[in-house]
Structure formats: C-alpha cells, structure tokens
Amino acid sequence: MQAQAPCLPIASSPASGAEAGVPGPAERRDGAPSVSSTGAAAEPTAHGGHPGWTAALLAERSPSLLRDDMSRFGIGVGLASLYGLALGARQGGVSLVQHAAGVPAAVVAVAGLGVPALLIVLTLFNAPLDPPRALSATARAAAATGLVLGGLAPAAALFVVTSGSDLTAALLGLLGLAVGGVLGVHVLLRDLRAALRGNGSLALLAGHGAALLGFAGFAVALALRVWWATLPILKAGAL
C-alpha cells in the first residue's frame, strides 16, 4: 500500500478585474478604454490666461515706477501720432509730419500745463494727492487716448483721403480727436477722483469736484487750441 502525499490546498490567485466583473484601468463599464489622467489623451489643465497688451498698458500698478509711467506715456503719444499721420494723408508731404506732431502735442500740453496747475489748485483744498499718483493717472490717460486714436487711424485715413469736401474731412478728423480726448480726460478724472474720495469734509470734497470740473473744461479748450494751431486739415476745412 503506497503512502499518499498529503494534499495541500492550492491558493488560487485573485481574480482579475475582468473576471470579477469590475472594470479595470484599461476599460470602462461601457467597454470603451479609459484614459489615464496622466496619459497623452488626458484633458489639458486649464490655465489662467495672461492679460493682453492693452489691458497691461491701462492696468493700475502699485507701486508705480517713474520709468513705467514715462514708458506708458510715450506709448500713448506714439499711438496718437499715428492718427496724425492718417489726417496728413489727405495732403501728403510735409503735412504728414505736421499732423503727426500736432495730434500728440495736445496730449503733451494738457499733461505738462494742465495737470500741474490742477495739482496746485487741489493743494489749496488740502487734497491728499501726491505727484507720483498724479503722474500715474496722467500716463494712463495718455495711453487711453493713444489707444483710441491709434485704433481710429486706419478709418480716419480712409475717410479723409476719399472725402470730396475739406469741411467733411475736417469734421471727421475732429470727431476722432474728440473721442480720444474725452476718453483720456475721463480716465484722468476718474483716477484722481478715486484718490480723493472719502478724504476731507463735505466742503473740501465740493472744492475738489469744482477743481476737477474746471480742469476738464481747461483741458478741452487747450487741446482744441493746440490742434487748431498745428493741424492744417482743420484750417482747410474752415476756409
């Protein structure tokens, strides 16, 4: 009688996910292959978009650096000169240079004459406004004006060149100047008003508002005077 070897139970290997009815990592319940979060077909992670060039140009920066403000102001002046070139395209030649210099000259005049005068007046009302904040607001206003005028330059060139009347060309050119100038003054006054809001008594706030309103009228009158003296297209339309 032969001795029988003891029969040891054989441990069965765990059932695979497919045999157990549980979808494995390579398949979903509907039978389609699943995609790993680290695989090539994984959905891209959403990244925050970077601000555009115009948004960065007009964005408030704190603290504001003199170099950045001067760069922003220079960009605004350069864009405004593009509108001047568009107006000068009607006559060509030397008129191109005259208009390219005349359009941004009003921006420089308001920034160089009007803003310092406004600061002096606000100082009389004990306004908590320092020169760096005023310079930053002026730079943003110049950039806003330049962006508007630079954007209108192609349309202005088309209208002034194809217009059959000098008066119509002058009115169209002046309309674009008015839009850019008004927007620039609005940005400047908005920034200055935000810096003055909530500081001082009611009488001082009323004085601040009167000073800002007077500056708006002065800026419009000064810009029109500079444009009338430097832009031949406006004089040709008045003849």
User: How big a fraction of the residues is strand?
Assistant: under 5%
C-alpha termini separation: 136 Å
What is the number of domains?
Answer: 1
Low-confidence parts lasting 5 or more residues at pLDDT below 50?
1-48
What's the helix count? 8
Q: How is the main sheet built? A: none
The number of E-state strands comes to: 0
Instruction: Report the helical percentage.
Output: 55-70%
Overall spatial form: globular
Radius of gyration: 34 Å
Mean pLDDT: 79
Transmembrane segments: 70-89, 101-125, 137-161, 167-189, 201-228
Keywords: Membrane, Transmembrane, Transmembrane helix
Region (Disordered): 1-53
What does this structure look like?
The chain has 239 residues and is mainly alpha-helical. Helices cover 68% and strands 0% of the residues. Mean pLDDT is 79; it is low at 1-48. It has one domain. The chain crosses the membrane at residues 70-89, 101-125, 137-161, 167-189, 201-228. Residues 1-53 are annotated as: Disordered.
